[in-house]
Structure formats: C-alpha cells, structure tokens
Amino acid sequence: MPDFRPDDEASVAETVRAARIDGPLEITGGATKRGLGRPTQTAATLSLDRLSGITLYEPAELVISAKAGTPLAELESTLAAGGQRLAFDPPRLTALWEGDPARASIGAVVAANLAGPRRIHAGAARDSLIGVRLVNGRGEIVKNGGRVMKNVTGYDLVKLMAGAFGTLGVLTEVTFKVLPSPETEATLIFSGLSEADAVACLSAGLGSPWEVTGAAHLPGWAGSPAETLLRLEGFEAQMTYRAGALAAHLVAHGVPDVLRGEASAARWREVGELAPLGDVSALAVWKISTRPASGPSVAAALRRAGVSRLFLDWGGGLIWAACEPAGDAQAGPIRAALAAHGGHATLMKAPDEIRAAAEVFHPLPTPVMELTRKIKDAFDPARVLNPGRMYAGV
Q1: CA 95, CA 287: separation in Å to the nearest integer?
Q2: Strands 129-136, 169-177: parallel, antiparallel or unpaired by DSSP?
Q3: For the sheet containing 63-67, what is the strand order?
Q4: How many angstroms separate the Cα of 282 from the Cα of each of 19, 219, 358?
Q5: Which part of the chain is the FAD-binding PCMH-type domain (predicted)?
Q6: In the list 30, 52, 224, 354, which could disulfide-bond 350, CB 3.0-4.6 Å?
Q7: Which CATH architecture has domain 277-356?
Q8: What is the pTM of this model?
Q9: Residue 280 in contact with residue 95, Cβ under 8 Å?
Q10: Where are the domains of the chain?
C-alpha cells in the first residue's frame, strides 16, 4: 500500500484531491494509535509525520500552535521550559497499541479527543483547542478559530474536528490555550473504601472549594486494599493547608495518607496510562463513560457479566475495563449494563477481526446517525478520509 508523507499543507491537499480518483486514505501521524477505531479499507496511507514543528509559542498569551505531526513530547517539552502545560493531561496509552510512544503526535491527540485524569477539572482536548487548519475531503484547505477563545457562527470546526478521528478532515495545524504549570501537587489516598463509598468521597471532594484536579478509585490487588485518590495542585505554600482542609472535609471516609510532589505526579501518570489494569497485552480494553453517581452500579453490572478487571477515574464517571478478546469482546453485556444508567462504551483495544465485526463506538440513535452521515457528506462526500473508522459507511 503506498505511503504518502507530505511535508507541507499544500502537498497534503494535493494528495487528498488525488485520492478522490485513486482511492481512500488512512490518515496517520506517529502511527501509535492505528489500533483505535474500526479497521479501514484504504488504497494508501497519508502520514503526517513530516508535517512537524511548533509554529507559534507566545507564553505571555498562553497560546501555542504546532503542525499536526509534531510529537506530543516536543510540545510538552517546549511548554515545560516556559513553565506551562497542556491543561487536559494528554495520555499516550502505550499499554493499548503498538508503536514508539515518542512518536505520538499532537494531531492524533486532537483527532481522538484524548484526555487524562485532569479532564475532570480541565476538560478534554477540545476544551483547550482554539484553532485548527485542515484539509477536507475535497482537498480544500480550511482554517477555523485562532489565538483567542470566542463564539462562532455556523460549524464550530475546532470542536467538530476533536474526536472525529480523521473522518472529516486531515488536521495540518492545531492551536491550544495553555496554562501555567503548578509549583507542586499532593494526593490524598483513602484506603479500603467500597466503590460506592469511594464515589461518595470523590464527589464530596470535587464539590468542595479546594479545587480537586484528579479523582480516581483503584481496586486492591493481591490482598492490597483499594485506594481512593484525590489530587490537589498549586503553590507549595498552600499545599499543606489545602490538603489538611480537604482531609478534614472528608473525615467521614477515614484518615488519608498524603503523597507529595513527584511521588504524587508518578501515581497519576500510572492512572493515566492504565497501570491499574495490569498487563492488557492479550486483552480487550473498554473505555466506559457514565454519570459518576452510576459508576459503582455499572461496575457491579460489569462484574456480574464477567468483566472483573476495572478501575474508576473522573470521579466515577469513567470506567476502564479489560476482558478476554473473544466474540464481541463483551460488547453486548457491557452496553446492556449501561442501558439502565446512561452513558456510552468505546472498544479501545481488540484484535482487528473483532473491531471489524463489533460496534467499536457506541451505537448512535437513528436521528444522530443520519446527522453524522450528513456532516460526513458535507466534509468528505467521496469518502476518502479514514472511511469506516468510526461507523460503517461514514
């Protein structure tokens, strides 16, 4: 299969225009997330790995722009040198897919709308994204948004492209609003809580005035107790007081241990990269979203269905679960468990044959699916960009 590797936006547009005759394209960046979504049947690969580099960084304005193939690590390193960071804590998720994590691109983060544990506080990638440049399925270069957040009329392409998985346009440049990095952090750890008590603890912490930026519940393994984690970030001078005040606010749930500084950061990196699931190299992995209050009930239903390896993030509203990669990888029982509570489930990792046969993304109601097809028609009428990556025929 041909592999096109353009090094500028005009060449990307030319490649897409040619694909309207020559056949559809699989869009990749660093090729670390090719296992996410349904397998595509394409005539060639359009790789953006040469479309790389930071094009604008204005620390005083809290704005950074980069070409879509820029490694996430390069962006984070540049921001760190300026005492800043991407607010949404983008994960690599190297436990799920093959590829060199150093090649993970910022365009893929946007295309998949990824976010780590801090999403509960700062939102997802789309909430920090303020501008995009892209090539649509007609081969037209489109710009939307800019260097400030503002309201728009018509399609908000900035938000639409985040989570479209390359099915509506080939991202060529992205612009983010960034935030200052905190001076330090602390994590309160409550031991031995049940999932219901843990979510009550997390909800109370998130509803407190102490600005919790991470809220997860990890199961106990091999006799170790379950851990309920709440993170605080800010100035060193504040941290002892805020951690003490939050612990006092949550005293009904016990007396927590406290991790400080790098020890706290390391624990949250483990959560973001799914370490609590253990080795998932031979398993299927699901990302399940629901209301935080429903998290324990959904988790209990999953266990009754035989999905026992799981943990809760985002205050209980996100459940990461792993199961055997057989049949539909438990798609039926998992989505049935959600039916009574609301939410959606995405199959993040599974063999190609399962992803080709099962619904990887949560099935959409008929009116929403019709709207999705109409949006695809508007941006990519010839179906040349990642066809079928999200839904068959789209």
Answers
A1: 13
A2: antiparallel
A3: 54-58, 63-67, 169-177, 129-136, 141-145
A4: 36, 20, 18
A5: 1-181
A6: 354
A7: 2-Layer Sandwich (3.30)
A8: 0.95
A9: yes
A10: 3-180, 184-272, 277-356
